[in-house]
Amino acid sequence: MGPEFRSEVESSSQYGHVRFYEPADRASFLSLYESVWGRPKSADWFDWRFESNPYREGVQMVVAEHEGELVGAEPLLPFRLRAGPKTLDAYQPVDWIVHPDHRRRGLFTRMTERLLSAYTDADLLFNFPTDALRPGLEKFDWRTVGEVPMSYRVHDPRHLHTGATGGDSRLVNAALSVGATVTRWGTRVSDRINRPSSDVTVERYETVPVEILVELYASAVPRRLHVTRDEQFLRWRFANPNWETTTYVASRDGRPVASIVTARERLDGFTCTHLLDVQPMVTSELPEQVFATLLSAVVSDHRDVDLLKAPANVHPSLFRRFLFFEDTMFPLSRVTMTSTQVVRPLALDSAEDAVRENGTSHGDRSGDPWRIGGLDLTDPDSWHLTLADVDIE
Fold first, then answer.
1. To the nearest whole number, what is the mean pLDDT of the chain?
2. Which of 59, 149, 155, 252 has a C-alpha 20 to 30 A away from that of 358?
3. For the whole prediction, is pTM greater than 0.90?
């Protein structure tokens, strides 16, 4: 039974009203988003992020209103996961907000209860909450998987500090010192040393070459849990109207062998290039020199941005050669915020019932919903995630 058929009755003694999203809520959600996060978002962004998702129709969102004003929201992004040959449906909670004037009144609890009771048409939830949100999720049985490290190439270090240092100016100055050194001479030396391979050509695409990326993904599908790179995902995920997207494809003997999807974005007064996606995902199948040529082209085209951000699980030694530093390493570990992944099966109490009733695979047949396809959902080694899979706006 879908959310539209569920009761909307609320106790008159409760603060506010919790219900499902309606199309007329879009402008109110955008206003609430800007008031909480301090970043304006357009209607085009909302339509891309929530309306255009290829795996579900409509917007999956629970909202809270008080005296006719939207004061809270809990949206979901539908995703399709894969582990080897096994395909799973998932939701990623994103942009969960309650207006500061309406917190500590039970709205978060009631929205989350409504969401968990309504959106049961998937196997699991996985997301990357803030430190402030994570304790609330743990009360609803989310479990921590672990940190999802990223790596940064710093061109202008003034934009590294995110408030994670707790105001320790010495740590900020240390990071600035390291970044300034890299900016002055390190990147130039690195780029001269890392020369491209003469037998590899790199082609740039202003639109995502979906067919090429699908073939590269299929050439080495990870056995770990990951977001499926099917045509629907590729056409939707990289269409963010706030991104200037370029896809780099490396070829050998006229045959595509690797790719990187990049997105340039202006954020809070600085420019950042995200290395969103790398194919093939199993990089052990790709000679390092091929990928070095591809990375060299990306770096060369983005010298004018302040930061480049990439997943830390792709050829880490090669990225370090190009002066990408992991955010788990000092001093970046003290001046950046590392994303933490959490997970929750959607059928904690009825995994076996779901298998018997409709043939879906909500958990293993052993009855343990925390294991899917023989993989422990809470084990970081069970997952392979990139920037395209982490919640970036």
1. 85
2. 59
3. no
